[in-house]
Design goal:
Elements (H helix, E strand, L loop, with lengths): L19 H13 L1 H14 L6 E5 L5 H10 L4 E5 L3 H9 L7 E3 L13 E7 L8 H11 E20 L3 H9 L9 H11 L3 E11 L7 H13 L5 H16 L4 E12 L3
Helix pairs in contact: 6-8
């Protein structure tokens, strides 16, 4: 389950230019996740990118998906990645030598392009980090021309599943994943697009599965420490769960997952 916990350096107020390496590592890991790759492939097909179109990738990170989509646009197309983190933009530019892709500073709530100037918008795992995701969706509607299409892909932290362990302890631990700005983002996508005037064309989902032989200790420990700090778990309960998970991993019986949802829609016109 290659995911970054909501409330981290992907939020504008938490950006630390000196701590880019963990973010790049997390994004690279997400790029390699089979579930992410399958959901992206579905969304790319549903979006039906055409030669010569203009694309905006909102929250472009290291630029991996921006570059992928740019290939489908062909030499006459335009691909712009919008990213507020200057360190991530620098990585994206370094990884795009000779590419026609441009990376610019900008926020999802104030996209740096004119009204009705884009044919396509791609936005992946961004809304979960935003306190006002509806404003970001309204901005996507603003920049798309009539008939323009949007693909929103996002995690729903309320779908986190962890096994084995005492159910009440597991619940207390996974509840710590709901402390981000917009933890139920995945299930809200359809309603947000409809409220912004979009017509929903297709929906998809993928469970992002952690390796059943290896515990994702950085994430588990982050959640465990949060649960102990807030009094949801005792240290003994936390440590017992850690031992149960480690033992399950050793015998290949661990289950850890979270579901990511996708919606493709168009602006009527």
């Amino acid at each position: 389950m290659a995911q970054i916990q909501p409330g981290t350096g992907f939020q504008q107020r938490h950006i630390d230019p000196d701590r880019v390496a963990p973010l790049v590592g997390a994004l690279d890991s997400q790029d390699a996740n089979p579930g992410v790759r399958r959901l992206r492939a579905w969304a790319e097909e549903a979006l039906a990118v055409r030669l010569g179109e203009r694309l905006l990738d909102v929250g472009s990170g290291t630029g991996s998906q921006t570059r992928t989509l740019a290939v489908a646009l062909g030499p006459e197309g335009v691909a712009i990645g919008v990213e507020p983190n200057p360190s991530l933009r620098a990585v994206a530019e370094e990884r795009s030598p000779g590419s026609r892709v441009r990376f610019v500073h900008g926020e999802a709530s104030a996209l740096p392009v004119p009204d009705a100037s884009m044919d396509l918008v791609w936005c992946e795992r961004v809304l979960q980090h935003l306190a006002d995701p509806d404003l970001a969706v309204a901005e996507m509607a603003r920049v798309l021309r009539p008939g323009g299409r949007v693909a929103l892909l996002d995690t729903d932290w309320g779908t986190t599943v962890l096994h084995p362990g005492d159910p009440s302890v597991v619940h207390a631990l996974t509840a710590a994943a709901l402390q981000g700005a917009n933890p139920y983002s995945g299930r809200r996508l359809v309603g947000q697009l409809s409220a912004a005037g979009f017509v929903v064309d297709d929906r998809g989902s993928q469970a992002l599965l952690q390796d059943h032989r290896t515990v994702a200790w950085p994430l588990i420990r982050m959640l465990g420490e949060s649960a102990v700090r807030t009094g949801a778990l005792t240290e003994h309960q936390r440590d017992t769960l850690y031992a149960d998970l480690a033992e399950a991993g050793e015998r290949g019986a661990l289950h850890m997952s979270v579901t990511m949802f996708g919606v493709v829609a168009h602006r009527p016109g």
